[in-house]
Each structure stands twice: as structure tokens, then as C-alpha cells.
Automatic annotation (TrEMBL):
One of its GO terms (cellular component) is membrane. Belongs to the TMEM170 family. Its main location: membrane. It comes from the Eukaryota. The chain crosses the membrane at residues 74-94, 106-139, 145-166. Pfam families: Tmemb_170 (PF10190). Keywords: Membrane, Transmembrane, Transmembrane helix. This is Integral membrane protein.
């Protein structure tokens, strides 16, 4: 198996037969669900609008490699965090008032919010993406491209819920 032509490695099992695997991706996502011969990792965002099941012959809406799951989850989390943080900063700026003196430094607020959103998204997206890939790999599942998008929204909802001060909350 050549892992999209980027790396080739070989491992020996206890029976001493050569098992090809990708040292970069540490194998495929699911052993019983091997990717088709003509499989290529879908381009981002690659969401299947018609159905949640990938009925295409080349599985163009399915993720098999753990690093691809991580990348999709990370990118969706960054995009969704940036949108929500930008909406929050715009609401705050429009509710601030229109004094000319206060707008001198107010331009930096969206930049600070977006930098913080990026840092939070990289941390949350990386952790969730790697755990998600590991769970799907352990269960021998293949992943639809909607799953990382959904987890990007779950990440931002956890962030919103944890921003409230609730007794016994997160």
C-alpha cells in the first residue's frame, strides 16, 4: 500500500509475512474496511450533501487515515471558532458606543479575539481530532466527512456552555 504515493513502509507480523503499512498514517483507519484501490483522500471540505452514507464507488466522502481525520477536525474547528468569535466581537463593538476616543484602540479587539480563537481551536481541534481518529480506528469504522464538521460545532458549543458561570458546571 503506498498511502497516496507519499510513503511506503513494511512491517513483519508474528507469522513473518510482510504487511504493508504507512508509517506516516500508521496504517489505515479500519482493517476490515480497506479503502478502495482508487481511493484518494477527499479535498477539504468535501461534504456529501445528498446522504450521510457514501455510496460512491471510490468513497470520495470517506476518511480512512487518522491524520486526515485530525486535519478535517482541526480545520472545521478553526473555521467555526473564528466565525463565533468574530460574531461575538462584532456584537461587542456595535454595543460599545460611538465615542471617537474609544475607537483609537478598539480596532485591536477583533485581532485579539481571532488570535485567541485560533489558539483555542488548534488545541481543541487537535485533541478531539486525534481522539476521534483513534476511536474510529479502534472500532474499525470508516468516517464520513460530516463527522469532523459536527465535532467542530460540538467544540464551540462546549466553549459557549463553559463560558457561563453555573454552579456545578464545566
Amino acid at each position: 500500500m503506498t498511502c497516496r504515493g507519499r510513503c511506503i513502509a513494511t512491517a513483519r507480523d508474528s507469522i513473518s509475512t510482510a504487511i504493508p503499512f504507512c508509517s506516516l498514517h500508521y496504517g489505515t483507519m479500519a482493517l476490515p474496511n480497506e479503502p478502495p484501490k482508487d481511493y484518494q483522500t477527499p479535498g477539504f471540505p468535501s461534504l456529501n450533501i445528498q446522504t450521510l452514507h457514501d455510496n460512491t464507488h471510490d468513497k470520495r466522502f470517506t476518511l480512512y487515515y487518522i491524520l486526515d481525520v485530525w486535519r478535517f477536525t482541526l480545520l472545521w474547528t478553526i473555521i467555526i471558532y473564528a466565525c463565533f468569535h468574530l460574531a461575538a466581537v462584532l456584537i461587542a463593538m456595535f454595543n460599545h458606543g460611538w465615542k471617537k476616543s474609544s475607537w483609537k484602540y478598539l480596532w485591536a479587539v477583533p485581532i485579539v479575539y481571532l488570535v485567541m480563537a485560533g489558539l483555542e481551536a488548534v488545541l481543541a481541534g487537535s485533541i478531539v481530532g486525534l481522539v476521534l481518529g483513534a476511536v474510529y480506528s479502534a472500532g474499525y469504522y470508516e468516517m464520513n466527512t460530516w463527522i469532523p464538521c459536527t465535532w467542530g460545532f460540538i467544540n464551540v458549543l462546549v466553549l459557549i456552555i463553559s463560558s457561563f458561570s453555573i454552579q456545578g458546571g464545566l
